[in-house]
């Protein structure tokens, strides 16, 4: 396996890869309705793509209020730290933009993953697209 590379993506130029990954993970695997997957934040968010070689295998986005979301890795590449690489890229970008706090809405089964990265659960469990979620927050100043 090649080393995983993450770069900032261009929503327009990299749209096909971002859509391919998010559709595979959220729409097909998790049955999220397409109208809930795509939103106005996509046009303004900073997107990230993870690659193995020249093949895009994961994506995430950072909205300029510090919200990290749409973290998704294709099934065959899970467990290989691709999600860690995407999250680290998003956190660094948030810090570079002086966003003191990063927030996300996590699927409950993924909370331990985000806790390893310094996020804390700040809400009760709730359903989003029929999937149990919690809100989580990470303060940059606490992690410095």
UniProtKB/TrEMBL annotation:
Pfam families for this protein: Acetyltransf_10 (PF13673)
GO molecular function: acyltransferase activity
PROSITE patterns the UniProt entry points to: GNAT
EC number: 2.3.1.-
Keyword presence, Cell membrane: no
Alphabetical keyword list: Acyltransferase, Transferase
Residue span, N-acetyltransferase domain: 4-144
Protein name (record): GNAT family N-acetyltransferase
Taxonomic lineage: Bacteria, Pseudomonadati, Pseudomonadota, Gammaproteobacteria, Pseudomonadales
């Amino acid at each position: 396996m090649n080393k995983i590379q993450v770069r900032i993506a261009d929503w327009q130029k990299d749209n096909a890869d971002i859509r391919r990954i998010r559709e595979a993970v959220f729409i097909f695997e998790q049955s999220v309705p397409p109208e809930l997957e795509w939103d106005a934040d996509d046009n303004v968010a900073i997107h990230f793509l993870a690659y193995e070689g020249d093949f895009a295998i994961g994506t995430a986005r950072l909205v300029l209020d510090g919200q990290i979301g749409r973290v998704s890795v294709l099934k065959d590449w899970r467990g290989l730290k691709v999600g860690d690489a995407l999250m680290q890229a998003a956190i660094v970008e948030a810090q570079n933009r002086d966003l003191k706090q990063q927030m996300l809405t996590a699927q409950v089964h993924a909370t331990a993953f985000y806790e390893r990265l310094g996020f804390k659960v700040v809400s009760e469990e709730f359903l989003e697209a029929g999937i149990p979620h919690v809100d989580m927050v990470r303060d940059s100043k606490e992690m410095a």
